[in-house]
Hints:
By secondary structure, this protein is of the alpha+beta class. The chain contains four helices and two strands; from the N terminus they run αβααβα. Strands 1-2 form a two-stranded parallel ribbon.
Amino acid sequence: xxxxxxxxxxxxxxxxxxxxxxxxxxxxxxxxxxxxxxxxxxxxxxxxxxxxxxxxxxxxxxxx
Length: 64
């Protein structure tokens, strides 16, 4: 919960992940923007293809 409290932006891979966050932590939408990346949750931890996708998409969403 502490990680969610300080977050300004949260990224979820799928809509079901966002739905779970907003259900479990109802106050989350009061202070954080939640982006759904529309990435299937079919990857292993630190899969190079997944990391590459994050590296391409996340900076655009954060306007970096």
